[in-house]
Amino acid sequence: xxxxxxxxxxxxxxSENYExxxxxxxxALDKGHEVQAFxxxxxxxxxxxxxxxxxxxxxxxxxxxxxxxxxxxxxxxGICVNARGLEGGKEFTEGVSVGGLPDLADxxxxxxxxxxx
Length: 117
Description:
5 strands; alpha/beta; 4 helices; Hypothetical Protein Ychn, Chain: A
C-alpha cells in the first residue's frame, strides 16, 4: 500500500480543508494506506482539545481524534504552535506530536504521494 504525506495549512472554520483532510485520511486508511500529516501555519489549530462551537457537530477536534484513532500520524510545526501561544502543544488532543520542518522533509522523502491543503 502507499505512504501518503499530507500538509494542512488552514485552521478550522477558515475553510472546509479540515473536513477534506479528515475525509481523505479516513478513506486512505480504510483502504490500507499509511497517512502521515504535517500541520503548518494555522493548520495547528485543528486539534485543540478545548474547541466549543455549538452549531458544528462534530467539532474539528473530534474529526481529528477519529483519524488518529484509525492510525494517522500527525505532527504540528513547533514554531507555528509556539507563535500562536499554544504552549508547545499542551492544548492538543492526544496523538498529535510537535516537530519541525525536518520532520516534514522526512515524511516527504518516505512518501509515495503528497497532498497539500
